[in-house]
Write a structure and sequence with these properties.
The chain is of the alpha+beta class and 95 residues long. The protein contains three helices and four strands, in the order H-E-H-E-H-E-E. The chain has a four-stranded mixed sheet. Helix 2 links the parallel strand 1 and strand 2. The relative contact order is 0.21. The structure holds zinc ion. The site of zinc ion has 7 residues, from loops.
């Protein structure tokens, strides 16, 4: 990578970090979705019915399911339904 490319890469990463919020509380999730831009990182059970409910209730949809899932995902609960989490995913509001 050239210096310029490295800087651009760094900036993009920083932007993503600053615009990514994480919560395990559905009420807080709704508030963040309403008031902030960017991505919301949250645990999800993997059920499409649950994802559809989240979309109905918050207009947020799953954008990214990262390849490298962190260890211990299953020790967390799904943001909405409280079932055992399968994935840590990124949500963003659909406009
Ligand atoms: Zn769920």
């Amino acid at each position: 990578l050239t210096e310029i490319q490295k800087n651009l890469f760094h900036l993009a990463g920083q932007f993503q970090q600053e615009n990514t919020h994480q919560t395990e509380d559905y009420q807080e999730f709704k508030e963040i979705i309403e008031t902030k831009r960017g991505f919301l990182k949250a645990y999800w059970c993997g059920q499409t019915t649950c994802e559809e409910k989240i979309k109905e209730e918050t207009q947020a949809t799953i954008r990214v399911i990262p390849f490298g899932q962190p260890e211990g995902v299953a020790t967390h609960k799904c943001l909405r339904c409280g079932a055992k989490a399968q994935w840590l995913v990124y949500f963003a509001k659909a406009y």
